[in-house]
User: Fold Radical SAM domain protein from Alkaliphilus metalliredigens.
Amino acid sequence: MDDLKHQYIIICESTSHMLNTDRLLKLRGIKTELTPTPSEYGSICTTAIAFDAEDKSFIEDILQKNYLGFQQIHPYQPRKLSGLIRSLKNNIISQPFNEVMVKIQEGKELTKEEIVLLLKSDSQSEKEALYQAADKMREEIIGDTVEIRGAIEFSNYCKKECNYCGIRKGCTTPSRYRMTEDEIMESVYQLHQWGIKTVILQSGEDDYYTTDMLIQIITRIKRETKMGVTLSIGEKSYDEYQFLREAGTNNFLLKIETTNRQIFEFIHPDDNYDTRIQCSEWLRELGYANGSGNMIGLPGQTEEDIAEDILFFKKMRIHMIGIGPFIPAKGTPFETYETGSIEMTLKAVAVTRLVCKNVYIPATTALASIDPDGQTKALKCGANTIMLISTPEKYRKNYQIYSHKNMIDLASAFKSIAEANRSIPKYLKVTPQEVV
Assistant:
């Protein structure tokens, strides 16, 4: 089901209706895929059901005979960027680069070779054209408002030994901590008071927090604040993901980090590539708004590898894609490795916007950690989300997954948004003047 041009999508009234519809269609032998809802039909962080055009009549008959809470069936319409080539008329670009821009303008899917060509753009004029195209795609699909979310890093214990990570098992650099439920809720209340709609609960892979403990925290957040909940807690079993989803978790962030199997195994000595892929598939199947992402500048990584990552995001129908430079932490086996390129990270952000289109792309904390203007730059080339570091002050310096981490707060988020000439979300209950 890779050719979306010959597909239709089903828009449902709710996530539960969508999952029930998808389950029934699969039982009837119909191949379906869960995909981020195109912006013209609903919110980016909702999920639609994609199916091949040849099954349309059969599906319509099934839906008419079963009340499944569906609203409409729409043909998939490739997103075009009318006027893109005209807007680039002052840029000096090569013929091959121009041909790729024409395909983007016409809404055609890019090949791996064309993605690599964009990633390898090295002239200033072509890079500016790439960023301009990505920003135009972002503006037309999502608009100018920057989504703001708050991340609470509730534990820096981890059972894994990733070679680059500052909270890896056995790393002696941080003081270990685990937040209590009440401590977590204090930070949640602060975010809720500011008007923020989604909280991200992030930790190392820490088995101290059982599924029942996590469900209790999620249930309390939902009951007391009605906020959206994103989990970023690593690899779990299918049943654990299902229980957490049923408890009210909306989104799950599990980065692939690289789709190059050899690099993945090099940076994760005690991890399994196939397990990571399986977990991502389970999350999609269970109806999570699925988050992933990669690191730019990993040892041995090429533009071809990054292109494969981007195609993976598209194939897996990822809703939120975090792209940041590789930053090794002190006290790890990789501490002397070179930090990833800011420029290549920005190009990857831009190309991901052009290829994946209607997704959330954060201006990552990692970018801000090696360039004070990194988030502003990312917002100007396709990014549309900022995540605040909302971990309590007494803990946050110990969540050093990479060295010299920038502790993004509301003031710095407002600054980046203003410098990028973008808009603060209307749901916020605090103004820039109040946080200066």
